[in-house]
Each structure stands twice: as C-alpha cells, then as structure tokens.
Amino acid sequence: MTIEELMALAAEQPTRTSRRAGVSRSTIKRIVDGQSMPTINTLKEIALALGLEIDVYARHASDPFAAAAARSLIDDSVPEHPQDYNTWIWLERFERWGINDPLTLVSEAGTLLGIKHNYDAVYLNVHTESARRLPEIFDSMGCDWAMSGAGSASVTLGTAINGPTILWYDSAVKVDEALFGTIAPSAEKADLILVPARSTELVGKTQQKGLSFVAPVQLVIDLHSIGMHEVADFLTRGWRS
Hints:
Elements: H1 3-12, H2 14-21, H3 25-32, H4 40-49, H5 64-74, H6 85-97, H7 102-113, E1 122-126, H8 128-132, H9 134-141, E2 145-148, H10 149-157, E3 165-170, E4 181-183, E5 192-197, E6 206-208, E7 211-213, H11 216-225, H12 229-235
Pfam family, one: HTH_3
Protein name: HTH cro/C1-type domain-containing protein
Domain HTH cro/C1-type: 18-57
C-alpha cells in the first residue's frame, strides 16, 4: 500500500482516524490534498489507527518533481515559479543542498528522476515496424508523447547513439505496450523505455518530421538518468563557457 492509498483510507473515516492517531482532521486533509508532507511518526500513528503498520525502507529515488524543479531554474519553457507543491519542495531542497549551477542541477535531477527505477516504466525490445509508426500509434490512442534518450540524442547530434530510447507519454492515457515491442528481460537490455509523464516531462516538446521530442534540458536530465553521462556532457559542453 502506498502513502496515497493509506491516506485515502484515512480520509474515509477522518474523525475516528484523527482521534486514534492524535492528528487533527485538517492535517489529514492537507496530507490527502498534497498540501502537507507527513512525518514518519505521523504516518505510523495514522497506520496504527487503521489497524496497519508502516514498514520503512530505502530504495533508489524516482521522483519526476526533482527534474521539474531543476527545469524551472534553468529552462525557459518551464515556469520559473511553479505552482506544484512537490516541485516547490525540491526547489527548497536544492537550495539547502547548495546546488545552483546548471550542470550540477541536471546531473542531480537525472539521478533523482531514476527512470530505470520507476515502477511505472515498461522496458521493451522495440519492433522495427513500430519504431517507424510511432506518431500513428500514439495518434490512434489520442495520446500526447515525446521522445528522449538515445533516439532523441541521435537526432540532435546527427549521428547514431547507442542506448535506450525513452518515450514519455500522457499518464492519463492507458498505453498498450504490445504495440511497441516485447518485454525486455531487464532494464539494462531494453532498447525502449515507456514512461508515463507525471510532471513537466512533455512541457516544451518540439516537432520534427512528424516526431515529438522532449525539450533540450529534459533530454539532458533523461540521459543522466539512464547513465548516458558522456552524451549528456557533450550536449552541455557549451554551458561551461
């Protein structure tokens, strides 16, 4: 059960949960609405009030709002003052961590984006025919999308780049991955990664010869996220001047 599912359960019986957990109903509502970040102790008390138990463990970060925060600082296509609470939290973290130069921001944001650790990502070996029909496939689903990763870098640099291509798509649309390829044995062996966009991944995308591509800063963040650091560094070589 996720934190969101736990809080949705708490919201179904707010008075009882509030009394048992020692947490006000207004606090519960703010957490449910995403306006407040609960502490571990608060979550533990809410869970126990519902007859559940919190089990805390650490895993690789996979947070799209870190990338959104980085882009809001250095990418003109993203609002400088985001309205999203989760993005603001990351802006505060970056300030606290003393990260403010563009090169460090995109590198850190890529690590935190953690595409290969995203529970919703699907790792595929792409069908050749599907690669040629990307616009048609997405149009048939009425789905907004954009290409990133090796595929986008190859177009940007005008030469073939080895590595997985990333396809960001509107998370509100259910995508049939079978239209794109077969499930890869592992993330490392995939040549296509399908990922639902949950923040600013599609903001600033461009069109070229019928294909959609993510904004340049998003591309660099994505390349860092999938371990293609040398390509990301080459694309940002002009940022050092």
